[in-house]
Specification:
The structure holds two protein chains of two kinds.
Chain A: H1 3-13, H2 20-42, H3 48-58, H4 61-69, E1 75-77, E2 79-82, H5 87-112, H6 115-146, H7 168-176, H8 183-206, E3 215-217, H9 219-222, H10 225-244, H11 249-273, E4 277-279, H12 287-330
Antiparallel strand pairs in A: 1-2, 3-4
Helix pairs in contact in A: 1-2, 1-4, 5-6, 5-8, 6-8, 7-8, 8-10, 10-11, 11-12
Chain B: H1 11-34, E1 39-40, H2 41-50, H3 57-69, E2 73-80, E3 83-90, H4 92-119
Antiparallel strand pairs in B: 1-3, 2-3
The chains are: A mainly alpha, B alpha+beta.
């Protein structure tokens, strides 16, 4: 793929569906004509650096696409926070993340049969999602405003039509549609960061208390606690990497495989140890207390078993994808960093 | 979402904003006038540049699409130099609108000249 092809593909990522082919064909002709004129003036074919200079003068793909959308909406608070170039992407990412968060909250509410806990349960994730999405877009916009020329056409990344990040992509793709390939991984990455942030805060808040009423954490939890925290932190690396380097598909898929393997290992170890809650004072415990402890341990055991099975399935799919990506990449000698 | 500005006026940016505002209408007029003859985008840009009207691609192409949506231009894809190109020309409505706009331009120009002349010492 040439420099111009990659640039046009990146512009295309940000164009509205239905106009993409038309606009890209016209821009392609314009760029080609300009480069031919430049080559004729110099009496030789253009060097890559000269082509890059023309593309840079043409403008950042996001800025070029924004002119066609004619959408001037932005987020301002005294000064510009998120400009019109990023605003449509911001709204879509925020919308999908909020929708998925609400969906998860609704399922939690139904499962817990408690509207109160359901509402309480989704306010925090919703606030976290909103803060993370808005914060990330403000940072991207700041970079865009502070350094409008701080981009290199040779490093422009297009997501392409076949890039995915995780199983969440399928849901996001259904909600957003395939017309905006760049938005899908951004959405799922931020959603993943939000969900993992919630998981991490819950894990850290449970911590290793001495006792919770008449119960205290058993060895099934305490022995794997540090590993659980480590895996959640490790899991955060993948969506963060996606935001920074969206085209490093193979490294991302490999990270998912490693995390899935770690989750399975921790699950198996935890199952082998058993006893996730134990009685704080067995000598004074009543029969009801013992029954409740047994019930909790049974529920946790089956939950962990289910998690292991689900993770094994998603891990196997990710592994298959990694093998395919490696096979496709080995023919052209590409590295682990390149995409599929 | 709040849309407000608390930034102090900067003479440089004020001039730039006013200049762009002034230019915007003139660009439309120049594009419509030039498209009495059929052109594709890149050739139109060059033709305008040769006549002292520099307009970058990111302004010209969206403008052409907007004018076409408004029914002032017609366009068609044709192959030239072994490449598909989109050719634009003024539509019947475009001709009528251009004539009225040119009248307005002449009136404005005359008025402005009178106003500026009166203010001169």
């Amino acid at each position: 793929m040439t420099l111009v092809d990659r640039y046009l593909r990146a512009v295309r990522d940000h164009l509205p569906r239905g106009q993409q082919d038309d606009i890209i064909n016209e821009l392609a002709d314009s760029l080609q004509s300009r480069m031919e004129d430049e080559a004729a003036t110099r009496g030789r074919a253009l060097l890559e650096t000269e082509e890059a200079a023309i593309l840079k003068e043409f403008g950042h793909p996001m800025a070029v696409a924004a002119r066609y959308r004619g959408d001037e909406r932005s987020v301002t608070f005294g000064r510009r926070l998120i400009g019109p170039e990023l605003f449509p992407t911001y709204m879509k990412v925020l919308g999908v993340n909020v929708a998925i968060t609400l969906l998860i909250a609704a399922i939690t509410t139904i499962a817990s049969l408690s509207i109160g806990s359901g509402i309480a349960g989704f306010i925090a994730p919703l606030a976290i999602q909103f803060t993370i999405v808005t914060g990330i877009f403000i940072l991207i916009d700041r970079r865009f405003v502070d350094r409008p020329d701080g981009w290199d056409p040779r490093k422009v990344a297009s997501m392409g039509p076949d890039v995915d990040v995780s199983s969440l992509d399928g849901i996001a793709e259904q909600l957003i549609g395939k017309a905006y390939p760049r938005i899908v991984p951004i959405t799922t990455s931020i959603l993943e960061i939000g969900l993992l942030a919630v998981a991490l805060s819950v894990t850290l808040s449970i911590g290793l208390p001495q006792a919770l009423g008449f119960l205290k954490p058993g060895p099934g939890w305490t022995e794997v606690y540090v590993a659980v925290v480590a895996v959640i932190v490790l899991s955060l690396a993948s969506p963060i990497l996606t935001l920074i380097r969206p085209t490093w598909t193979r490294l991302r898929v490999a990270a998912h495989v490693v995390v899935d393997a770690a989750v399975i290992l921790i699950g198996v170890v935890s199952l082998a140890i058993g006893s996730w809650v134990v009685l704080a004072d067995p000598a004074t415990a009543t029969a009801e207390m013992r029954q409740l402890a047994d019930l909790i341990n049974t529920v946790v055991r089956w939950s962990i078993a289910g998690t292991i099975v689900l993770t094994a399935v998603t891990g196997a799919l990710e592994l298959r994808r990694l093998v395919r990506l490696n096979r496709a990449g080995s023919g052209v000698g590409s590295s682990l960093l390149s995409g599929g | 979402m709040v849309n407000a500005s608390v930034t102090s006026p900067d003479p440089g940016s004020s001039f730039e904003n006013l200049r762009l505002e002034l230019r915007r209408g003139a660009l439309v007029l120049a594009v419509l006038a030039r498209l009495k003859t059929e052109h594709y985008g890149y050739a139109l840009r060059k033709a305008l540049l040769e006549r002292g009207m520099d307009i970058d691609e990111n302004t010209l192409y969206p403008l052409l699409r907007r004018l076409e949506t408004q029914g002032l231009l017609d366009s068609e894809w044709r192959e030239e130099d072994k490449r598909p190109k989109r050719f634009y020309r003024l539509s019947a409505d475009g001709h009528a609108v251009l004539a009225r706009l040119l009248d307005q331009w002449t009136e404005l120009d005359a008025s402005l000249r009178r106003i500026i002349k009166e203010d001169l010492p």
